[in-house]
Design goal:
Layout (H helix, E strand, L loop, with lengths): L9 H5 L18 H10 L2 E6 L18 H4 L4 E3 L6 E3 L2 E6 L5 E6 L13 H12 L8 H5 L9 E4 L4 E5 L18 H4 L33 E7 L3 E6 L18 E6 L3 H9 L5 E3 L2 H8 L2 H4 L1 E8 L3 E6 L5 E2 L2 E2 L3 H7 L2 H10 L2 H7 L5 E3 L25 H10 L3 E2 L5 E2 L7 E7 L3 H15 L4 E7 L1 H11 L4 E6 L9 H4 L26 H15 L3 H18 L3 E2 L1 E10 L2 E2 L17 E2 L2
Parallel strand pairs: 1-10, 19-20, 19-21
Antiparallel strand pairs: 2-3, 4-5, 5-7, 6-7, 8-9, 9-10, 11-23, 12-23, 13-21, 13-22, 14-15, 16-23, 17-18, 24-25
Length: 594
């Protein structure tokens, strides 16, 4: 589970998105810089970029980054990434019952959709009851709405024209944060959730794909989609019906247009930024020194938010299941991967400090936890979290103890004489990840393990991870936040991002013989327990234990946490950069100065 840093709202927080790049978004242009400059003179605009095309324009069906929804939708609440405080979005206020089982939201007056139609309580009830809580719709949002050991879902009902009530079967601490999901338009989508196509599937499942004309996408966020040219650009236009106004009563946002250019080369983005044709660029470690000396000349500032809220890791496919009587993972390899001593040996063999020094230029820290360092529930190594400092001799000891041995070529073989060799996949076009993968290959070679490192096109990569499940090991990352329960769909065996032992999702081919280990069950139980607990001291114990288990059993072998850095032209006023929110989380407040 780049990281692309977009507006921080709760939809982004609890939809723990699979990440495409390891750092903040790279800005680039695929069209003529001259044209962009001409257009910029006509309307206030911001030009940034993404490394691949959006996969869907349907917020409920999205689980990937990049996506458009940080700009196009809002939920009832949001969270300020600077101070962590919960703030009203579409809801102006909320009240929690004394027994903590009900939250009543009061909607703002005069809300409208981008087509001018009223946005009401009925839209909220429709969004939750007909979409997010609808078991026939495969949405990751439902994973984090499940409550308690029985994984029950909340109920949502209309109180009156401005109030809506959410009820939970038992107190559920993170629930308030989880009401930040995008609210969707009932007047546009209601028919699609009640109608099936000729294949017997809900029309909603094919509604608002990337081939949908932008004018048909009705939104409530600060921007609406104006144009999408496949593999070229995404253009947003200010939503004239957006609800926010500044202290003087002037409509927000101030920036009229946002352009995302879609280009897969980060080297090209660097050239375009240095030539002055781009407004912002994510600063990866290999670009930092070059850009730092050009800040004054280029009239930009590099913002450093400290350790990012993202993770980077390698993971082995632990799935023991079969499809059509064929194992998803070669049984020989599966035996290796499911041996915890093998995974621990790999962790000891990877030289993360060298990776930090060389690939990251020292701009980051070693990573050991799935929980963001900014979270109050993060367990640091200093507080007792198990770590795997580089120790190839320890790695070899673990492998020998697990029944492996070395042949006359000094290659590692298992107890049946099979040479230990597997494929490590990542997404192509990310120089940092490709460098990390190359080092991992070399590090593991030193303990006799042969690695076939293969960067793949993003769509092919994700299809293997989440659909065909045809992979040995992967190098990827996930976004994070302050609330550990945001990762519920990673640590629940039923979750859509339980990638190391993925259960088939709705509409996918069934798997026979799928198994869940005891440690997987225990981590899931701890996350359920943490969601029920309100005592901060006990919460730290619960999530501390969960982090110890993830480090003991290593479903993810964590690598390096880079610093979150971006460079942005000084003509933008109101930037409040943070590792959690990125550069433009407060896009509605940002102005362009002369």
């Amino acid at each position: 589970m780049t990281l692309t840093k977009k507006i921080l709202n709760l939809t982004k927080r609890f939809l723990l998105l699979i990440t495409i790049i390891a750092f903040t978004a790279i800005t680039i242009t695929a069209c003529s810089p001259t044209n962009l400059k001409t257009n910029a003179a006509q309307v206030p605009q911001l030009v940034t970029s993404i490394l691949s095309d959006p996969k869907t324009f349907n917020a409920a069906l999205s689980s990937e980054s990049p996506n458009i929804f940080g700009y196009t939708y809002e939920g009832l609440l949001t969270q300020n990434p600077i101070d962590g405080k919960i703030e009203g979005a579409l809801a102006e206020s909320w009240e929690i019952s004394p027994d903590k089982t009900k939250i009543t939201f009061t909607m703002r007056e005069g809300l409208k959709w981008s087509d001018g139609q009223p946005l009401t309580v009925d839209d909220v009830v429709f969004t939750y009851n007909d979409i997010y809580l609808n078991e026939n719709i495969p949405t990751d949002i439902r994973d984090v709405l499940r409550i308690g050991k029985d994984r029950k879902l909340p109920t949502v009902k209309k109180i009156d024209t401005r109030r809506v009530e959410f009820s939970v079967p038992e107190p559920f601490r993170p629930f308030l944060l989880n009401t930040g999901a995008s609210i969707l338009p009932a007047h546009i989508l209601e028919k699609s959730v009640k109608t099936k196509n000729q294949d017997g599937k809900l029309e909603f499942l094919s509604k608002w794909g990337v081939d949908t004309p932008p004018a048909e996408l009705i939104v409530n966020g600060p921007y609406k989609l104006e144009r999408y040219d496949t593999s070229q650009r995404v253009i947003f236009r200010r939503n004239p019906y957006y609800w926010r106004k500044d202290a003087q009563g002037k409509p927000q946002p101030y920036i009229e247009r946002i352009i995302w250019q879609i280009v897969e080369s980060t080297d090209t983005s660097l050239l375009q930024f240095r030539s002055g044709d781009l407004d912002s660029i994510g600063v990866s470690p290999d670009y930092f020194s070059l850009l730092k000396v050009q800040e004054k000349q280029g009239n930009f500032t590099i913002y450093n938010g400290g350790p990012s809220s993202s993770t980077s890791f390698i993971s082995f496919n632990l799935n023991k299941g079969k499809r059509n009587n064929q194992p998803l993972v070669d049984p020989i390899k599966s035996k290796w991967f499911n041996n915890v001593q093998f995974r621990q040996a790999v962790a000891y063999a990877i030289d993360r400090q060298t990776m930090l020094n060389n690939t990251f230029r020292g701009l980051g820290t070693p990573q050991d936890s799935p929980i963001s360092v900014q979270s109050p529930y993060f367990l640091s190594p200093e507080k007792g979290l198990k770590v795997y400092n580089h120790n190839p001799e320890k790695a070899k000891e673990l492998l020998i103890a697990a029944g492996f041995k070395y042949n006359d070529k000094n290659l590692l073989v298992d107890d049946q004489g099979n040479e230990v060799r597997f494929a490590l996949l990542t997404n192509a076009g990310n120089k940092i990840r490709e460098s990390m993968g190359s080092q991992i290959k070399q590090d593991l070679k030193k303990i006799g393990i042969q690695v076939d490192f293969t960067p793949l096109a993003w769509n092919t990569f994700i299809d293997k991870l989440s659909n065909t499940l045809d992979w040995d090991a992967c190098l990827i990352g996930l976004t994070g936040g302050l609330e550990p329960n945001d990762g519920a769909n990673v640590w629940s065996p039923e979750g859509g991002l339980h990638m190391f032992n993925q259960k088939p999702q709705a509409g996918q081919k069934p798997i026979e013989g799928w198994e869940v280990s005891d440690w997987e069950k225990k981590i899931n139980q701890l996350y359920i327990q943490g969601a029920q607990e309100f005592d901060e001291a006990k919460l730290k114990e619960i999530y501390g234990e969960s982090q110890q288990l993830t480090q003991e059993y290593l479903p993810f072998i964590y690598l390096v946490n880079s610093y979150a850095m971006s460079a942005i032209r000084n003509r933008f006023e109101g930037i409040q950069y943070s590792a959690l929110g990125g550069t433009f989380w407060n896009i509605h407040e940002i102005k362009i100065t002369k």
